[in-house]
Design goal:
Layout: E1 7-14, H1 19-32, E2 37-42, E3 51-58, E4 74-77, H2 80-85, E5 95-99, H3 106-109, H4 118-126, E6 132-135, H5 137-144, H6 150-160, H7 168-178, H8 181-203
Parallel strand pairs: 1-4, 4-5, 5-6
Antiparallel strand pairs: 1-3, 2-3
């Protein structure tokens, strides 16, 4: 395996958003690029829209599958409130990429629980790190050709941070190996749109 600096990635969302698929694609790309990878998943009540958490650790010298608290380098939140559930993994230097489209639990609609506003979520994240990027992955997925590709948009954002030791070419090759024909084309577009969105954010004004 290639000697690579440690990089800790956490992907979080709710059941049905494709978090597990994202981690699978990421892990396969790491193996293809000869990079050591370890990971774990917490599915919770995923099939009922519950929390889904995927922990991917890349690089040499990583022995445990779980990222220690305060050691996450990149947090990709496919659902905004799930970022708060995992805020204890963040450090001042962490980068958060946040999908602004929420998935409210049914208990909110029944009036049995609350849900924080996006402003409240961002405020709490900014108390830990100033490096927060928000985007509407659902809108970008629609532009790509399918709302279901929102998770691949978010996967593209991860590569767009420039922190990944895995090449974009390898990431796309893994996508094309998993999705064929028209679906494959849509997912490549979704990946590119997410990648470009984060690249624009990082090259423009300070990340907020």
């Amino acid at each position: 395996m290639a000697k690579t600096k440690e990089l800790n990635v956490i992907i979080c969302g709710v059941g049905g958003q494709g978090v597990v698929l994202m981690s699978e694609l990421l892990g396969n790309a790491a193996v293809r690029d000869d990079i050591e990878v370890k990971g774990s998943e917490v599915l919770g009540m995923a099939q009922r829209g519950g929390s889904v958490f995927s922990n991917i650790r890349l690089g040499s010298g990583v022995y445990a599958p779980l990222t220690p608290e305060g050691k996450c380098d990149v947090l990709v939140a496919v659902e905004p409130s799930e970022a708060l559930r995992n805020v204890h993994f963040l450090a001042k230097s962490s980068l958060v990429v946040l999908n602004s489209r929420d998935v409210k639990p049914f208990t909110v609609f029944l009036g049995k629980s609350g849900y924080p506003s996006l402003e409240e979520i961002l405020d709490k994240l900014h108390r830990v790190t100033d490096r927060v990027i928000t985007l509407d992955a659902t809108q970008l997925a629609q532009e790509a050709g399918s709302v279901q590709s929102a998770n691949v948009v978010m996967l593209g954002t991860l590569y767009g941070t420039g922190l990944m030791p895995i090449t974009v070419e390898t990431a796309k090759a893994v996508l094309q190996g998993r999705f064929k024909g028209k679906v494959g084309e849509i997912n490549i577009r979704a990946f590119d749109l997410g990648y470009e969105e984060v690249q624009k954010a990082l090259k423009g004004a300070p990340v907020k």
